[in-house]
Design brief:
Shape: globular
Helix content: 40-55%
Strand content: under 5%
Order of helices and strands: HHHHEEEHEEHHHEHH
Structural class: mainly alpha
Number of helices: 10
Radius of gyration: 21 Å
Largest sheet: 2 strands, parallel
Distance between the termini: 31 Å
């Protein structure tokens, strides 16, 4: 996870100190990244060429999320209905080329190649089916994937659509893995953690919140707010001990989307990102209206009144 970015270094050089303001029962303002500190950051960016280069790097990093629609940003977060896996296969190999691909060696890039993992040797992509289409077909009214709703006619190798082709089912993953000769490759289960969660969701929140601090542009904060709000909708429903596997086993390890040691860090980072953008989103009436409309559209219990 790239949370120690150059932008963070710039921010830390400002000697952050939390405000001593008494907040009461409800958060009233950014606590760690106060308005005064943000003004100092912007002054540094405008006065120092090195700081300006760092700002430009963060802007480039945030660009993929700025190019998405509000609905697409909201849809990046997923629910707990698919078994998550800490590895594709802890001591496995590529089913295409046979080369060893153990532990964390499978490649993923959620923003440029969504819902795919690929072999570091032959670059064969898995799953071979159009999982994005399968996933969309299984979204319930709340926007959460339900395997029982998904269209299983979409589960075929897209490069070999003929049912009589011997490769028609090769590499196909419905979320619970591709099984061959008694071995299971959890391509999507691992992608959910390392691709969709750590890159598309957390990576977006990090990039957008940092871009807001370094530019003062509330458009970045709004996108971060959409993602943070959607994470808040579903995060309590995640229980790694009951929903995920490590080393192909359900070991009962605590956690949320990730196992406990990563979940602790991720939860802290979510809180810090919220603080970075709080002053902007607290005053953003169009953001509240957008989230209220999404809540009504999807029948969410939290109606997003503020």
């Amino acid at each position: 996870m790239n949370h120690r970015t150059l932008a963070t270094i710039v921010i830390l050089l400002l000697t952050l100190c939390p405000s001593r303001e008494v907040l009461g029962d409800r958060k009233a303002s950014s606590l760690f990244m106060t308005r005064a500190l943000r003004e100092r950051v912007l002054a540094n960016v405008h006065q120092d060429e090195h700081a300006a280069r760092l700002r430009d790097q963060v802007i480039r990093r945030a660009r993929p999320w700025m190019e998405l629609s509000d609905d697409q940003i909201w849809g990046l977060m997923f629910g707990p209905g698919i078994t998550r896996s800490w590895m594709v296969w802890s001591d496995g190999h590529c089913p295409a080329c046979g080369e060893s691909v153990p532990m964390y060696n499978w490649r993923m890039d959620a923003m440029s190649r969504p819902w795919k993992t690929w072999c570091p040797h032959c670059e064969a992509e898995f799953p071979t089916n159009d999982f994005a289409a399968f996933y969309r077909s299984g979204l319930d009214p709340r926007g959460i994937f339900d395997p029982a709703l998904a269209d299983r006619s979409l589960l075929f190798n897209a490069a070999h659509p003929d049912p009589n082709d011997p490769l028609h089912q090769f590499g196909v993953d419905d979320g619970e893995g591709f099984v061959q000769d008694g071995k299971r490759w959890r391509f999507i289960g691992a992608y959910l953690i390392y691709g969709q969660w750590k890159q598309a969701v957390l990576g977006g929140i990090h990039a957008l919140s940092e871009a807001y601090v370094l530019t003062g542009d509330s458009a970045y904060a709004r996108r971060a707010g959409i993602l943070l709000d959607r994470v808040a909708d579903v995060y309590p429903s995640f229980d790694f001990s009951q929903q995920a596997v490590i080393y192909e086993q359900r070991l009962g390890s605590a956690g949320y989307v990730s196992v406990w040691h990563d979940a602790c860090e991720e939860t802290r980072e979510l809180a810090q990102a919220y603080d970075l953008v709080f002053d902007a989103i607290a005053e953003d009436a169009p953001l509240v209206a957008l989230l209220r409309a999404q809540a009504a559209r999807h029948g969410l219990e939290n109606r997003k009144q503020s």
